[in-house]
């Protein structure tokens, strides 16, 4: 049986949005509103051999399940911790002779969990999966066709010894996954590695300028005794002060799209029309499309088309590993863009992101740092001041400046990033702990730099030459 309230949130009727969650007390910036273990979760197909299927940490040489030859783990400790969740999956994969796709695997894990725990896994669970929206009636013919293929794959995969399930209910579960699946990141929070379902999180509605963010806490699987392990859990964290009675919201899509594009993405993926203040008033759209004064509309169109085509070429070259070509294309594109677009224009920011990333990969940190700084200045005018993606971009820019020997700017950026990510990720997340280590190190180097620049640069060159 579910409850409608748990400290400090409660379920309420949010009008056209259906149900939502609101605060039952004042919540401070950076505070964990609630945490929730996954109902079920799986690693993406493409990363199944690189990510632990228990804690979702990336591993260079993971330990493979000897029975199904599919699941991979950090070590036997993680494997033992995951066995209760994996054992039925392991048997099903062996009998099928191959692994199904990630959606089918997630649906099966959900169904096994529901049959074991009758759909409720915690006294604080605010809803059941039966009550979650599946939006089957809103789906396009193409989406429904894909869903039906997954349903048939599921029925082929589902073991005969397991309790039978109806085709309609399986379709409902796939609809819930499509609309409510939450992407899980690796231990550094930098790459999406899987997808999971968190019932309480499903009740948190969207806003393009939200008051909360979600981060994955991977738990602790280091103890040899699995009784001392902690589960992977999402944490809903406050981006600012939240008043009693205020609705809790997160953003389902990246804010760095103009309002009409965000609305289109939300309609395609989540089947609702966003009417938040930022979409209703087109807030920040002018900055995202900003052009310089006295530039003709023909010039804007020409450079816009050129930017779109060049970005496609950049993506292709990057996929092929042709990084020199990526840099060349970025230079050409920026040369066209600079006389026409402002640095907050999305076309410019996308190129700046690519060129700074690839130049850093090529260890050309001096040049990369200039582009990275332009990028984060543009981001700073667009993103919520406590947006996690802004914090990560500033962190990367700080590291790039540090590696380029620009210690003053590097330290300042790392401190700024730490100020954001301590709110979005908390003090115990690996990315925040890494940042704290970098902050202390760059502060020491900055003191040395201010005492004697020549000595600092000589020491730095000596370290780099080793």
What does this structure look like?
It is a single chain. With 466 residues, the chain is mostly helical. It starts with a strand and ends with a helix. The strands form five sheets. The chain has a three-stranded antiparallel β-sheet, with no helix packed on it. The longest helix is centred in the middle third of the chain and has 23 residues, at 297-319. Helix content is 49%, strand content 11%. The chain has helices at residues 76-96, 102-117, 141-157, 167-180, 259-270, 277-280, 285-288, 297-319, 323-337, 346-361, 365-382, 388-403, 407-424, 430-451, 453-464, and strands at residues 5-6, 9-13, 19-23, 32-37, 40-43, 63-64, 72-73, 182-185, 192-197, 205-206, 212-217, 233-238, 249-250.
Task: Please render the helix and strand layout as text.
Layout: E1 5-6, E2 9-13, E3 19-23, E4 32-37, E5 40-43, E6 63-64, E7 72-73, H1 76-96, H2 102-117, H3 141-157, H4 167-180, E8 182-185, E9 192-197, E10 205-206, E11 212-217, E12 233-238, E13 249-250, H5 259-270, H6 277-280, H7 285-288, H8 297-319, H9 323-337, H10 346-361, H11 365-382, H12 388-403, H13 407-424, H14 430-451, H15 453-464
Parallel strand pairs: 10-13
Antiparallel strand pairs: 1-2, 2-3, 4-12, 5-9, 6-7, 8-9, 11-12
Please tell me the overall pLDDT.
91
Global morphology:
globular
- Unreliable stretches covering 5 or more consecutive residues: 223-229
Largest sheet: 3 strands, antiparallel
User: What percentage of the residues does DSSP assign to strands (E)?
Assistant: 5-15%
């Amino acid at each position: 049986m579910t409850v409608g309230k748990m400290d400090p949130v409660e379920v309420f009727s949010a009008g056209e949005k259906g149900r939502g969650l609101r605060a039952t007390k004042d919540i401070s910036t950076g505070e964990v509103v609630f945490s929730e273990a996954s109902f079920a979760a799986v690693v993406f197909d493409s990363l199944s051999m690189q990510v632990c299927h228990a804690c979702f940490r990336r591993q260079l040489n993971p330990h493979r399940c000897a029975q199904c030859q599919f699941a991979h783990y950090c070590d036997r400790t993680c494997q033992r911790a995951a066995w209760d969740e994996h054992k039925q999956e392991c048997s099903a994969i062996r009998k099928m002779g191959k692994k199904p796709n990630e959606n089918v695997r997630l649906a099966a894990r959900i169904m096994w969990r529901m049959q074991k725990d009758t759909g409720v896994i915690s006294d604080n669970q605010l809803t059941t999966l039966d009550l979650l929206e599946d939006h089957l009636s809103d789906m396009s013919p193409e989406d429904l066709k894909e869903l039906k293929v997954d349903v048939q794959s599921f029925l082929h995969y589902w073991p005969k010894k397991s309790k039978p399930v109806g085709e309609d209910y399986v379709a409902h579960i796939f609809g819930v996954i499509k609309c409510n699946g939450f992407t899980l990141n690796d231990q550094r929070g930098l790459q999406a590695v899987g997808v999971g379902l968190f019932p309480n999180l499903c009740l948190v509605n969207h806003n393009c300028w939200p008051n909360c963010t979600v981060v994955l806490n991977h738990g602790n699987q280091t103890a040899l005794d699995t009784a001392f392990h902690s589960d992977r859990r999402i944490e809903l964290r406050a981006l600012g002060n939240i008043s009693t009675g205020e609705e809790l919201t997160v953003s389902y899509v990246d804010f760095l799209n103009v309002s009409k594009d965000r609305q289109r993405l939300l309609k395609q993926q989540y089947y609702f029309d966003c009417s938040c203040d930022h979409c209703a008033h087109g807030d920040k759209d002018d900055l995202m499309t900003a052009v310089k004064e006295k530039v003709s509309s023909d010039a804007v169109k020409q450079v816009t088309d050129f930017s779109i085509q060049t970005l496609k070429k950049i993506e292709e070259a990057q996929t092929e590993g042709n990084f020199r070509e990526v840099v060349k294309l970025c230079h050409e594109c920026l040369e066209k863009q600079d006389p026409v677009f402002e640095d907050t224009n999305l076309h410019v920011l996308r190129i700046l992101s690519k060129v700074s990333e690839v130049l850093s990969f090529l260890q050309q940190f001096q040049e990369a740092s200039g582009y990275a700084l332009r990028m984060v200045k543009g981001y700073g005018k667009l993103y919520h001041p406590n947006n996690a993606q802004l914090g990560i971009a500033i962190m990367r820019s700080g590291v790039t400046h540090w590696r380029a020997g620009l210690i003053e700017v590097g330290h300042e950026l790392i401190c700024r990033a730490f100020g954001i990510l301590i709110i979005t990720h908390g003090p115990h997340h690996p990315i925040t702990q890494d940042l704290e280590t970098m902050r202390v190190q760059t502060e020491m180097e900055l003191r040395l730099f201010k005492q004697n620049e020549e000595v600092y640069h000589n020491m730095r060159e000596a370290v780099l030459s080793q």
